Every structure is written in C-alpha cells, then in structure tokens.
Amino acid sequence: MTDTSQRVLSLIVNDSSLDPDLRRIAEKVEAGERISFAEGVILYEKAELGYLGVLSNFVREKLHGHKTYFNRNFHIEPTNLCVYDCKFCSYSRLIKQKEEGWELSMNEMLDMVKKYDNEPVTEVHIVGGVLPQYDMKFYSELFSSIKAHRPELHVKALTPVEYHYIFKKAKVDYATGMRLMKEAGLESMPGGGAEIFNPEIREVICKDKCTAEQWLQIHEEWHKLGQRSNATILYGHIEKYWHRVDHMEQLRQLQDKTKGFQAFIPLKFRNQGNQMSNIEEVSVIEDLRNYAISRIYLDNFDHIKAYWAMISRNTAQLSLNFGVDDIDGTLDDTTKIYSMAGAEEQNPAMSTKELVHLIKQAGRHPIERDTLYHVVTDYNDYVFEEVPKPQFYKLPVINAMEVERKENE
Ligand code: SF4
User: Fold this and answer.
1) Which amino acid positions bind S-adenosyl-L-methionine, per UniProt (predicted)?
2) Domain 67-378, CATH homologous superfamily name and number
3) What is the DSSP track for 304-330?
4) Nearest CA to ligand 1 atom 2
5) Among 32, 210, 230, 309, who pairs with 164 as Cys (CB 3.0-4.6 Å)?
6) What pLDDT does 166 receive?
7) Is any ligand 1 atom within 6 A of the Cβ of residue 194?
C-alpha cells in the first residue's frame, strides 16, 4: 500500500466519533482480517462513500499499488437469440422474434478472428445467447479451429449458462464436459450468468437457466482442471443488500476451496429494452459503493474489474479509487451486450493510447496484461509515437489590420 492510503485509514481507525461497527470493520481491514457476512451488510447499510473509498483503496493499494490492468481483446457474440427469457436481458430475442436477431455461422466467426490477424490482441471473448444448434460439437470445433489458426490467442468463452445447456443436451456430466472443452482449446471462462445467487430472486429474474449451485459447480470443475475463471454479480434491481453479500459469500467460500477465480466484476443493472424497465437504475454513488464493498469483502480475489463499456469512461476512472484495479479491454466495438441495455457507450471501443491516458489521468500506473495477468507492456513511462500531423497547403493570411495599414500608407 502507499503511505497515503495507510495514513488516511489510520485517521478513520482513530476517529472516536465514528460508528463503533464501522470502526471495528476499519480495524479489521487495517489488520488484514476477513470481515463477516453481518459486517458486509453493515457496510451496505451504514457506510458512506468517503469511508468506503478509504478502506477499499487501502486494500487495492496493498495488493497492487497503483498498478491498473487492461487487455487488448475483441468479442464474438455468436447469436442474440436465446431459449431463455431472463427479465433483465436487453440483449436476447426469443426464437419467435427471429427476424430481430443474428446467428453467426462457424465461418463468419472464424472470419472475425482472421480480421485481427495483424493486430496485437491477446484474447477473444465469446459469449451470447443459448440456441440448440450451438451445441458441444459446434463449440468444440470453434475453439479448436481458432487455436489452430492462431495458437497464441487466448480463448475465453461461454458461461455456465451455456455449458449447463450443452452438456445436458450431450448427456455428459460437468467434469467430463469441462475436460472436453479444455481439450478443444478453451482456456478460461468469463464470469457471466451468475446474476444473484439467491433462489427467490433468481426465480423472478431468470428462472429457466442454470441454478446458482450449477453455476458454482461448473466453475469448481473448471478450477479442478487447473484453469481460471471470473465471477460477476448483477446488482441494482430487486435484490436487497444482504442478497449481494450472500452472493459474494458463496464466491468467497468457493474461492477458498479452489483459488481459481481471478477477477470479480460487478455488473450494473441497466433498464433499457428489457422486462424490468420500470425499475430505476442505481446512482453512480451506489456503483462506487458496490465496487468498494466488493473489494473489502472478497479478500481472496486478486482483482476487481470494471467494464468501462457498461458504466461509462468517467465512472470507470472514478472506480480506480474505489477498489477497482482492472478496466476491461479495448473491445473494438465488438460487443452489443451493454449498448443494447442502455449504456452510454453505444459503440464501445478504446485505443490503447486512450485507455492508458484514462488510467494515467487517475494517477494510476497502466499495465497491459494478458488474460492470466502476465504483463504484456508496462505503460508507466511509455511514450506513444506521435502520429504526424496532416500537412496543409499554406494559404496567404489576410490580416485586416495589415491591409488597413497598407491602405493608409
Ligand atoms: S441473459 Fe443470457 S441466458 Fe438470459 S436471456 Fe439473455 S442471453 Fe439468454
């Protein structure tokens, strides 16, 4: 941690006017002790943004100093048609709305990969809707074809929602299914589909897809193979604070067991174009509180990640002072998931230079990573080559005062 983050935390710990519960939590954070479920709920119910910023920044800087990670990636979204009907989903169209959807063929997806042949991307991120034709055989062939074409491109693909569906259809258990996916070329799993683990909330917002237990079990099987994955939470809709803590508690317990998660990614519920549009979105303050509490609660997760495409560049920049140490990817306008839900970024793409600038402006140290957090380039002292300015013909300058002076001569 930096001296400043330690000093500011000490001020809080020594503040006798502070609520005793919050003071005890601050002491625990300073001592590197784990906070309890009940304390997680107290943070959500009582803690103000400033206090949470101090605690989460202390933890963040203890783990990473000023280092802030990003990667160069692109997305492939095979289809936005889906057999499920999650109420918060702005992205999917039911099969009966086929005319509003897309279904990419194997060749179309491989062409997308080839489009990046001369680009220094390190990862392809594949997620989309669930359809019968995108089965185990299809995805095995897709992964192996991508690896055959570009072996060093990391394949991060599909969530337990898709895996549960395709394994069931193929009549294989989770352990066998994940092993076969790994053999086909899958290298890591993104964190989606987790939503909120509580079954009552799930029953209302996403009752048809895999359960929380199944989601956790599939990650566990994947981790047992020595592989890594991420985890998400969808917050800010009908859940209560304790549901968020319960969600993180289940992740924390699995992480104690497997150590396979890399990053936790809080996903904000956006209310456009879905069946929960009547629910007001939470404020930016609540977004930042949520990042901060995640950082404090999930003491066994290395990284807290913000999707700038979902929360906007400005909030992503702010989040770097509230526990976040990773801002996802250059994206290159290859994802529609956030824009269709009403995110400010309608064509999300950032150049490396822009991402580096965004991180540096926040006083942090930008590092391009690969999917497994190996350093690709350290941009702290990096100077970008100046792009030569366009040349223009020099035009005679008409200076009104000069003309007037000449006329008077
Ligand atoms: S959230 Fe995923 S599983 Fe649910 S409807 Fe949307 S695309 Fe389908």
Assistant:
1) 88, 195
2) Aldolase class I (3.20.20.70)
3) EEE-HHHH-HHHHHHHTTTT--EE---
4) 129
5) 210
6) 98
7) no
